[in-house]
């Protein structure tokens, strides 16, 4: 596993955006999985700007949304659907057939999971997976205690995720379950990058790197990946030097 520490959020986001762009230049039909949330926001914005400036052709790429809050409508500005469309899919002018996200309002979540697994398999697997890390060490909605070997699944959200998750919403919302790619997807991806910024992530980044690998801190899974990377800014790395 590679650890890259960048000076600040801007530099981290530039480097990650550059890696995504390069992935699509190297393999135009690349399959890319993206998290939503505060951490990847600037990466998405910079990627869209770089792609426009450099005229990169994204028309053959496929984008997969990492996860979603079950029951939250797509037009809610706090949904992952809204985030990905607003910050990534629309700025990159992706066609409907190029993007796959979970339907939070599905009457059949098990089928939605099976369909997502099937899309990923049909497309030949994920080339590049960019994920954030929760304050409890979750990846996507793979909460503490989750098995490392799951593909897409529905999960009861951890108390920390329910509390912290309110930050995305204009008004308080009832959050109870998530629908998410599994950690097996991360292990199977050709390249996986966990990104984090800010001092508030320093504690969980320390644990991700130094604790025993296990599902009490799901993000430790990245250390099992043969092409895994942790990309963070100096603030998120601040406990590593102590
Ligand atoms: C969101 C997701 C979550 C977040 C994590 C960090 O799609 O998968 O696991 O990546 O909770 O969120 P931020 O980036 O808002 O700190």
Ordered list of secondary-structure elements with their pairings:
Elements: E1 2-6, H1 9-26, E2 31-34, H2 38-54, E3 62-65, E4 67-69, H3 80-89, E5 99-100, H4 109-122, E6 128-131, E7 153-156, H5 159-165, E8 177-180, H6 183-188, E9 191-196, H7 202-210, E10 228-233
Parallel strand pairs: 1-10, 2-3, 2-6, 3-5, 6-9, 9-10
Antiparallel strand pairs: 4-8, 7-8
Helix pairs in contact: 1-2
The structure holds fructose -6-phosphate (F6R).
The site of fructose -6-phosphate (F6R) has 14 residues, from helix 2.
Task: For this entry, give a set of tags.
single chain; 242 residues; 7 helices; 10 strands; globular; binds fructose -6-phosphate
General description of the model:
This protein has 7 helices and 10 strands. It is of the alpha/beta class. The strands form 2 sheets. A 7-stranded parallel β-sheet has the order 1-10-9-6-2-3-5, with helices on both faces. Strands 4-8-7 form a 3-stranded antiparallel β-sheet, covered by helices on one side. Helix 1 (9-26) packs across helix 2. The chain starts with a strand and ends in a 9-residue tail after the last strand. It binds fructose -6-phosphate. Fructose -6-phosphate is lined by residues 35-39, 66-67, 80, 132-134, 138-140. The site of fructose -6-phosphate (F6R) has 14 residues, from helix 2.
